[in-house]
Amino acid sequence: MRVLIVDDHPIIVSGCAAMLAGEGDIDVVDARDAETGLAAFTTEKPDVTVVDIGLPGVSGFELTRRILETDPGARIVIFSMNDDPIFAARAIQMGAKAYVTKNDDPYLLLTAVREVASGGVFLMPKIANRLAFEKSGAAASPLSALTARELEILRMLGRGLGMAEIAEATQVSYKTIANSCSIMKRKLGARTPMELMRIALEHRLT
Predict the structure, then answer these.
(1) Dihedral pair phi/psi, residue 116, rounded to 5°
(2) What's the pLDDT score for residue 56?
């Protein structure tokens, strides 16, 4: 089995690569950002791709979209520091097959990779339980009304990017980004882009 890991943290990449390669039947390749990740996916043709959300430049959400646009059958595991269930929900809606957080048992990643490689899906029990409560209306995240694209834009605002920079990075028009920011302000009760930035920082989107 060939696994591609797209993550910009060398220690995490080396640790995950060592764990997966230690299985004996897994070959690991890696990339550090969305652009090189997409190129590696095209050339290496991995069985499973592990994607970090918090990549430099465009996020793992955007990389997931681009990979699935290239190959709708791609098997993607999202591997993230963020344990907010809304991120798991958006990842699955986008077409990812699993969502694993980095602050849990690292062997859950191995479990997810094997499950996804066999054609299944994997969601950590605590995330699944929190999603169930979200759907029941209990303790809903303020981010739950945002689409994956809006989460991506909010994350980039949190990193200090302007709307023109976001438009260039996400390959859409400035007008589209401006409209998305207006919609997000209504959804989140924010009045200015600075307030959107504050929300992004509060929710550790950066």
Answers:
(1) -70, -40
(2) 86
